[in-house]
Structure formats: structure tokens, C-alpha cells
């Protein structure tokens, strides 16, 4: 009998003073968008007071990490100057520092300048949606700070990624691209133990591509890095369920349940409290079946 959960390897990740043991349980990364134009919560957290309040809420709801971003990567998003991107996220970095970094702080950026300033403020994870294609020197920064590095696959750029995305074989193509990014990162001094991979749900993918990636997620375990997945309220959920972004929480929970069953170690989410409950239940079911013959 085939077990309902894919095998999930165990990894140890160092995030400053925090140590994660990935595998036995699923970690929840809370999203803090400090942008006026993100597809779901753009404009909600743009003042220092609102940013600090949302940071505190994510931590209180049980986020294992807070991922702060100042430039939207939604399809068609315009580019933002590095100085403006930093201006937007600086209050979040300061809020985390004032709180004593109760959980690791991640910075969602493709820019060395922005990531460097965030790391100076205590960020211990760099979340690069370009997988080092835009600024490979982000790997040098991660190495210097011993920060963890998320390598996410995106076809094209945010401005072009949804213009008829195409793959010869979606899983093989994305896995090969991530393998190449891992080689670049390790060559620049990032320990493999500090790298996470993200297939990039919704980033240059059709709905069919996204579903195939979730269905075949165990195949990414061949890269021997922990897997991060972010489906939170994305368009493919709205397409499948015919729902606006505000009503996609249930669909998001379903997508992330499939991802965790397929071996995801971390889920990146807007709705932390609901996901903390979801992953605790899924992890309990996984643990109950551990050791049983297939």
C-alpha cells in the first residue's frame, strides 16, 4: 500500500541564533509585504506602525519566520529602485530588531544592496525569487553572513513571466534550473546545508504547470535541499475555484496540504494562524504513519 505522505528528508538549518530541524515538522513562513501593489495585501502595511503591528501579529500567531518584502513580484509588477525598496522594509527590520528577533527574519529581494542592509539589521535568510539569475552576488552575501538562501524558480521576470509560459518537461526543466542555481551558490561559498529550493508556484507557470508541480513535488527531493512552497491565495487557486483573492484561504490550505504531503518542509503564507493548525495536524498524521511498511 502506498503511504499518503512522501518521504521527507531531515535537514538542519542555521538562522542566526535559531536552529531549525526540518523534516520532523513543517515550518510556517509568514509574509509581511510592505508594498502598495502586492496582489493580495498591497497597501495594508505601508506605515511604520502598521508594519510593526503586522510583524507582531505574525509572530503571535505562530510564524516560524517572517519574510519581509518591499517590491511586488506579482505578474506585470513594475520595477522598484533599490533605495525605495529598502525604505519600505526598513520599519519591518527595525521592528524585528526591537523585538529581539523572536523568530528569524527573511528578506524577500533580488537586490544585493537591499539584502545587505537587511542582514546588517539581523536578517538571517535571503529569499531570492530569481534563484541568483539577477544578482549572483547575493550568494556572496549569504556566505559572508552565514545566512540561509532560498533559490526560487521563475521563468523570465515578473513583468514577462506569465506571457505564455512554456516548458519542454516542466518538472525536469525546473529541477535542472534549480540544480544549476545550487551549483552557483555553493561555488560562491554558500554551504549546501544553508540552501532551500522553491519550484516557484505561479511564477511563469500555467494552472496546469502548478498542479503538475504539486503532484510531482517528491521529485524535487532529488536535489537534496529542503523544499519551500508558496501557494498563498495565488491566481491558479482562483482559476480552479472561481474565487477572488479575498476568498482563497480554503483553497490555499488545500494546496499547502498537498504540498506538505508531497514533502514540502516550509510553507510561505499570508494566513499564519490557519496554517499553523493545518501543519500541526498534517505532521501528527505523518508521525503516526512513520515506520509502517509501504
Structure, described:
Strand 4 (65-69), helix 2 (82-98) and strand 5 (105-108) form a beta-alpha-beta unit. This protein has one domain (27-286): TIM Barrel (Alpha-Beta Barrel). Helices cover 38% and strands 15% of the residues. It is an alpha/beta fold and 294 residues long. It has helices at 48-60, 82-98, 112-120, 138-145, 170-187, 207-215, 235-241, 249-261, 272-289, and strands at residues 11-15, 18-22, 27-33, 65-69, 105-108, 125-128, 148-152, 195-198, 228-229, 266-269. An 8-stranded parallel β-sheet has the order 8-7-6-5-4-3-10-9. The relative contact order is 0.15.
Total beta strand runs: 10
CATH architecture: Alpha-Beta Barrel
As for the number of domains, it is 1
Large-scale geometry: globular
Number of helices: 9
Strand order of the largest sheet: 8-7-6-5-4-3-10-9
The CATH superfamily turns out to be: Dihydropteroate synthase-like
Roughly how many Å is the radius of gyration? 18 Å
Largest sheet: 8 strands, parallel
CATH level 3 topology:
TIM Barrel
The span between the termini is 5 Å
How would you classify the helix and strand content by structural class?
alpha/beta
The helical percent reads 25-40%
The CATH class turns out to be Alpha Beta
**Poorly predicted runs of 5 or more residues:** none
Approximate strand percentage? 15-25%
Task: Summarize the topology.
Layout: E1 11-15, E2 18-22, E3 27-33, H1 48-60, E4 65-69, H2 82-98, E5 105-108, H3 112-120, E6 125-128, H4 138-145, E7 148-152, H5 170-187, E8 195-198, H6 207-215, E9 228-229, H7 235-241, H8 249-261, E10 266-269, H9 272-289
Helix pairs in contact: 1-2, 2-3, 8-9
Amino acid at each position: 500500500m502506498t503511504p499518503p505522505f512522501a518521504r521527507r528528508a531531515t535537514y538542519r538549518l542555521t538562522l542566526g541564533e535559531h536552529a531549525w530541524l526540518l523534516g520532523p515538522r513543517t515550518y510556517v513562513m509568514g509574509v509581511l509585504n510592505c508594498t502598495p501593489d502586492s496582489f493580495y495585501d498591497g497597501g495594508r502595511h505601508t506605515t511604520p506602525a502598521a508594519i510593526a503591528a503586522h510583524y507582531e501579529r505574525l509572530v503571535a500567531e505562530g510564524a516560524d519566520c517572517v519574510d519581509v518584502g518591499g517590491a511586488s513580484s506579482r505578474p506585470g509588477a513594475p520595477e522598484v529602485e533599490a533605495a525605495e525598496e529598502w525604505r519600505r522594509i526598513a520599519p519591518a527590520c527595525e521592528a524585528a530588531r526591537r523585538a529581539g528577533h523572536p523568530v528569524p527574519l527573511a528578506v524577500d529581494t533580488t537586490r544585493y544592496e537591499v539584502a545587505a542592509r537587511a542582514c546588517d539589521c539581523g536578517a538571517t535568510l535571503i529569499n531570492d525569487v530569481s534563484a541568483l539569475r539577477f544578482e549572483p552576488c547575493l550568494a556572496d552575501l549569504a556566505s559572508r553572513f552565514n545566512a540561509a538562501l532560498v533559490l526560487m524558480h521563475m521563468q523570465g521576470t515578473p513583468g514577462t513571466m506569465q506571457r505564455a509560459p512554456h516548458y519542454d518537461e516542466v518538472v525536469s526543466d525546473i529541477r535542472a534550473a534549480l540544480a544549476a542555481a545550487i551549483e552557483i551558490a555553493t561555488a560562491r561559498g554558500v554551504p549546501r546545508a544553508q540552501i532551500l529550493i522553491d519550484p516557484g508556484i505561479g511564477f511563469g507557470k500555467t494552472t496546469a504547470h502548478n498542479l503538475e508541480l504539486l503532484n510531482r513535488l517528491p521529485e524535487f527531493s532529488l536535489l537534496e535541499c529542503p523544499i519551500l512552497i508558496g501557494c498563498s491565495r495565488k491566481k491558479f487557486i482562483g482559476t480552479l475555484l472561481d474565487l477572488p483573492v479575498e476568498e482563497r484561504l480554503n483553497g490555499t490550505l488545500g494546496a499547502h496540504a498537498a504540498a506538505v504531503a508531497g514533502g514540502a518542509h516550509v510553507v510561505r503564507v499570508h494566513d499564519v494562524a490557519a496554517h499553523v493548525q493545518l501543519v500541526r495536524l498534517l505532521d501528527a498524521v505523518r508521525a503516526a504513519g512513520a515506520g509502517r511498511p509501504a
